[in-house]
Amino acid sequence: MSDRKYITSIDQIPELAGLSDKQRQKLRAVEKRYAFRTNRYYQSLIDWEDPKDPIRRIVIPSTDELEAWGDLDASGESRYAKAPGLEHKYADTAVLLVSDVCGALCRFCFRKRLFMDDNQEVTRDISGGLDYIREHPEINNVLVTGGDPLLLSTRKLTKIIEQLRNIEHVRIIRIGSKMLAFNPFRILDDPELLRMFKTHSLSDRRIYLMAQFNHPRELTPPARRALDLVQNSGVTIMHQTPMIRGVNDNPVVLSRLFNELSYLGIAPYYIFQCRPTEGNAAYTVPIEKGYEIFTQAMKNCSGLARRCRYAMSHATGKIEVAGLTADQVFFRYHRAAYANQRLDEVLAFGRNPEAHWFDDYPEVQTLLTNRQNSLH
Questions:
Q1: 11 belongs to a structural domain
Q2: pLDDT digits over 69-100, tens only?
Q3: Which of 200, 261, 289, 374 has CB atoms 3.0–4.6 Å from 266's, for a disulfide?
Q4: pLDDT per residue over 48-60, tens digit each?
Q5: Are residues 201 and 222 in the same domain?
Q6: Rounded to 5 degrees, what are φ and ψ at 90?
Q7: What's the Cα-to-Cα distance from 341 to each of 203, 298, 317, 335, 357, rounded to whole Å?
Q8: Residues 102, 18: Cα–Cα separation, whole Å
Q9: Cβ partners under 8 Å of residue 350, min gap 6
Q10: Domain end: 66, 88, 110, which one?
Q11: Taking 90 as the threshold, does the pLDDT of residue 119 lie above it?
């Protein structure tokens, strides 16, 4: 299963041979708009007898993606671009976009714009981003992401990590990756990568792997072996996933995922509201319904799993969904992009069961207008 060949067209999938010409034409239209990529290992996890199989839903194109909805940059990431390939949204954290490819492509990806031909947000020359980090001593935390950094060669990734390690004020390096779900053989077949982790994940300057598993069936025996090897290399693994309709929007599935991760020594960190990115209408769950699913799942988890937060990566910051009553929904800023946002302030809005994003609440426009006014 360590075959590295990638599948980039539905015509390469024999299990889809029974599609009608009309169905195939529609899916080709999806492929033309939003890139498709998977691999033989991940394909082997799909139950092709089940049309609602969650692994299939994660990676196989759907005609629903052509529904007019959302924005390619739903969280306004471009407004925080400070150098080629670098975003600086929170004072102590920088984001380096080092890859424009993944082991497979989630259909609900919030950065699908990176995989389009005219996108220039990712750069192979990150020297400008590194210079920016050196010039900003408040940055103690760098997230290396993309795309997936583990799709880079170990030699290229090592060079990036070494350069970050040589910046004195960078204490934490995070690597955002779904490779341990998409193809754990990237870890299992490359001892050099593990040696690099061991060399650069120091006792007082850890490397964190921000691993994404969307469904417990992705925690296969090879994935578990890969997770164990990464942990033994001195890297701390955290977990995050969006809530995805038809994949993990079920308290039983979600609690099983969180518990299995906890058994493996991996802390569930965030479950994200699926961003209103173009093409994502069929994958999102309304905020209030999502929060109810999340809290139901937490009832069947230990305290270790309950450290997880349900949050949105909004243009103005990371916003936690903090509670519900019969009439109101409560939010608070977990991280704020603007210094004048109080992190201890609880925001109470009237409930809106159709809201899929923070901006869908009428009170938000007043809140954001008042904040802008206070900046001038």
A1: yes
A2: 999 999 999 999 999 999 999 999 999 999 99
A3: 261
A4: 999 999 999 999 9
A5: yes
A6: -105, 145
A7: 33, 29, 9, 9, 19
A8: 28
A9: 327, 328, 329, 361, 362, 363
A10: 66
A11: no
